[in-house]
Design goal:
Blueprint lengths: L19 H4 L1 E8 L7 E11 L16 E10 L11 E10 L5 E6 L7 E10 L2 E6 L8 E6 L7 H13 L2 H7 L3 E2 L8
Antiparallel strand pairs: 1-2, 1-8, 1-9, 2-3, 3-4, 4-5, 5-6, 6-7, 7-8
Organism: Rickenella mellea
Protein name: Calycin-like protein
Length: about 190
């Protein structure tokens, strides 16, 4: 794991070398401050790019900010983990905000189309990321720690990450005091 962890304050455009294409794909939420994950397990978020289009609808140089599909899947902690158990799905579209490419506006799909939120990657490295979510009408501000590995991250590394997030201070530092482990069952991808 990275030993040179740098956490960026929300709304900063200082995130170095953020590669949105490398960020897309499936992530496992291993730790969070968001209350909605307290009674959930096996939380994953999959980001899939939406090909850019021109004003004519044909492939070409993009005429609007980059977008991608955002699929959240999870099970209630009480759910059976048999392969027949279907996860709950929340779908949305993320639109890139700002020049860093690490800030986004999420808009729900289907009956959640009325819901939106802003979020951003405030730190990332090989196989891990830390995301910050702004407060909405439905949720408080919060932080998630992601892992590419379904088994999660090493405890010592998570402790270092949390300490660095606390070091940002302000509201983010206070949020970091509330990190809890999100249940991941063995054998994750």
């Amino acid at each position: 794991m990275d030993s040179n962890i740098v956490i960026h304050a929300p709304d900063s455009d200082g995130l170095d070398a953020f590669d949105l294409d490398a960020f897309t794909g499936k992530w496992h939420v291993t730790h969070s401050t968001l209350p909605l994950w307290k009674n959930k397990k096996n939380v994953t978020i999959t980001y899939t790019p939406i090909p850019p289009t021109t004003t004519t609808g044909n492939p070409g140089p993009p005429t609007e900010p980059r977008k991608f599909h955002d699929l959240v899947e999870y099970l209630p902690k009480s759910a059976s983990s048999s392969p027949d158990t279907k996860p709950t799905r929340i779908e949305g579209i993320d639109t890139v905000l700002g020049p860093s490419g690490a800030r986004f506006k999420w808009r729900g799909k289907g009956w959640l189309v009325v819901a939106s939120s802003k979020w951003q990657v405030i730190a990332h490295g090989d196989g891990w990321a830390v995301t910050y979510f702004e407060k909405t009408l439905f949720t408080p501000a919060g932080l998630d720690i992601y892992s590419r590995d379904g088994r999660g991250l090493e405890d010592a590394f998570v402790e270092e990450l949390v300490a660095k997030v606390r070091g940002v201070g302000g509201g983010v530092g206070r949020l970091a005091e509330a990190f809890f482990k999100v249940e991941l069952e063995e054998g994750g991808e």
